[in-house]
Amino acid sequence: MIEILIAAIANFITRIFPFVIFRKIPKRLKIFELYFPSTILIILILYIITKNNTNTHINISQVIGIIATVVLHLRFKHYLVSIFGGTFIYICFLNFI
Amino acid sequence: MYATFKYAFNITIPILFGYSFLSFSFGILAINLGFDWYIPIFMSIFIYSGALQFLLIGLFPSNLALIDIFITSFLLNIRQIFYGLSFLNKFTKFKLYLIFSLTDETYLLLNNSIPKEINNQYYYLFVSLLNHIYWIVGTILGVIFAHFVKFNFRGLDFILVSLFTVLVIEQYKRLKVIFPFVIGIFSFAVMFIFKFDNILLYSILLSVFILFMYKRS
């Protein structure tokens, strides 16, 4: 139980850190507010799809799933359609091909 | 207020599936590894970080010193330090809880632009709280199911990748610039090619550095 508490505290520190250090966002860091979400998104996607990639099979399914998501999103412009359609196509490829 | 809740709920629907599935698997895994039922549930309530929780149930049997657990947890999630920067002046009403519950997905959703008629603070609260609830309920269901059946939900965790992909498109539509994405791809590629151990952490640090230099010049 003490381990959970320690991990919870360490995790909370990473989340509260900027609020303790900065009153308001320094001018130099303003760009992060605007652009960092985009950068971190791409990194998270790449991280997820490259980890555990011993099986190339899985990789192809993921690429197809992402392409399907993009196409669906540009076509229908509704995020639920894109997300569930993309995931559905991914699962189909994963299981049947 | 109801309109705000409805709006927030709609936004979090993909997370409802993504989170409940992930935490469901987490609950099952924890029970299969021999943990008492309350351990994964307490973790989901008080730690509330997917990567860290999966790592911890993997690490626990190896009898780590508390200081090691502290350092590992801190480093694993150090990227979250940058998340708060976007909300320094935006969190006012439920500040402490909003900070506590600022996960990757919540951070990204709170960054979306929201309509004028929606109350900011309550929108933040509802999105954060709903995501947290999905996470906890998924864990509890996983713990319960682990006692009965072995499920195979292979592939459903792709929902999070799909969600991120959609958010990339939406971010691009909003910003109309490509360099933040290029910086992300470049930073990751560098760390990937050189096979760094903690690839997530180092690529984020590199991208922060490049982003910073890029805008100064």
- What portion of residues of chain A belong to β-strands? under 5%
What is the beta-strand fraction of chain B? under 5%
Largest sheet of chain A: none
How do the SSEs of chain A run, as a string of H and E?
A: HHHH
Q: Using CB atoms under 8 Å apart, which protein chain pair has the greatest interface?
A: A-B, 64 and 80 residues
Rg of chain B (CA only): 19 Å
Question: Which regions of chain A contain 5 or more consecutive residues with pLDDT less than 50?
Answer: none
Oligomer: heterodimer
The tally of beta strands of chain A, per DSSP, is 0
How would a textbook summarize the main sheet of chain B? none
Helix content of chain B: over 70%
Which overall shape of chain A is indicated by the principal axes computed on the Cα atoms? extended
In total, how many beta strands of chain B? 0
Which terms summarize this structure?
heterodimer; A: 97 residues; mainly alpha; 4 helices; 82% helix; B: 217 residues
Fold and architecture overview:
The complex is a heterodimer of chains A (97) and B (217). Chain A is mainly alpha-helical. Chain A is built from 4 helices and no strands. In chain A, helix 3 runs antiparallel to helix 4 (79-96). The longest helix of chain A has 21 residues, at 30-50. Chain A is extended. Chain B has 10 helices and no strands. Chain B has 217 residues and is an all-alpha fold. Helices cover 70% and strands 0% of the residues of chain B. Chain B has one domain (2-154). At the A-B interface, helix 1, helix 2, helix 3 and helix 4 of A face helix 1, helix 2, helix 4, helix 5 and helix 6 of B.
Write a brief caption for the model.
Chain A is mainly alpha-helical and 97 residues long. Helix content of chain A is 82%, strand content 0%.
